[in-house]
Write a structure and sequence with these properties.
The protein has 251 residues and is an alpha/beta fold. The protein is built from 12 helices and 8 strands. Helix content is 45%, strand content 15%. Bound molecules: phosphoenolpyruvate. Phosphoenolpyruvate binds next to β8.
């Protein structure tokens, strides 16, 4: 039985006081980590404080990106070593906004996934198609290519531990959610890709989230699907009461 993972992605939102208020309200209200994994992926400047404040609670703190190198002349970047030192436990990699706006490639995402494992961070690897790709019937091939490239070179044990977030780009921040059947169809395909590319044990273990305009009103139906093991949530993770409803749904 796979445990659901509900991860909030705050993106470039909130100021320090708002981040603190959110954490104070929610850190002791999220269900125990035996029932569901609850994660907030916050902007870099808040990470240290939020990790300190959530110590001993079931709420985990993640980052939204990182560089794959440990250190060096990469102005403006943050390394996996720095994140690990802070006590961060998850990192979102290859979000479609990073792929589209910052031109991140599948190769870079793969290097980051390796770097995450080298530093004991759990990668949440985002994959998903554009509207044009969906309309051209390229969804499955596109997502398959992204998943294989992201997992390239991992050990079977590592591959079993990744979290893959299936996020159709046309559903992110648009209010337009994939139907639960559309979402599950792609998540089922991703699990099959993992079975073929790695092995059946890894496919059975890997957690696959859906992301794209998830909110309290649609989360139950999405999470009830056979191959959806959680959600990566932008807009609806910004308010504590809404985030708490989402993690409750993951129990
Ligand atoms: C996201 O940021 O990954 C996301 C899915 O955003 P939203 O929930 O706002 O669509």
């Amino acid at each position: 039985m796979r445990k659901q993972v509900i991860a909030g992605n705050w993106k470039m939102n909130k100021v320090h006081t708002e981040a603190e208020d959110f954490i104070q309200t929610s850190k002791n209200e999220v269900p125990s980590s035996d029932q569901v994994e609850s994660v907030i992926c916050a902007p870099f400047p808040f990470l240290q404080k939020l990790v300190e404040e959530t110590k001993g609670t079931p709420l985990e703190i993640g980052a939204q990106n990182m560089h794959f190198e440990e250190k060096g002349a990469f102005t403006g970047e943050v390394s996996p070593v720095m994140l690990k030192e802070l006590g961060v436990t998850y990192v979102v990699l290859g979000h479609s906004e990073r792929r589209e706006i910052f031109k991140e490639t599948d190769e870079e995402v793969n290097k980051k996934v390796h770097a995450a494992f080298n530093h004991n961070l759990t990668p949440i690897i985002c994959v998903g198609e554009t509207l044009d790709q969906r309309e051209a019937d390229q969804t499955m091939d596109h997502v398959e290519g992204q998943v294989k490239k992201a997992l390239e070179g991992l050990t079977d044990e590592q591959a079993a531990k990744v979290i893959i977030a299936y996020e159709p780009i046309w559903a992110i921040g648009t209010g337009r959610t994939a139907t639960s059947e559309q979402a599950n169809e792609v998540c089922t395909h991703i699990r099959k890709v993992v079975a073929d590319f790695v092995n059946s044990d890894a496919a059975e273990a890997v957690r696959i989230q859906y992301g794209g305009s998830v909110k309290p009103a649609n989360v139950d139906e999405l999470l009830s699907q056979s191959d959806i093991d959680g959600a990566l949530v932008g807009g609806a993770s910004l308010e504590a009461d809404s985030f708490l409803k989402l993690v409750e749904a993951g129990k």
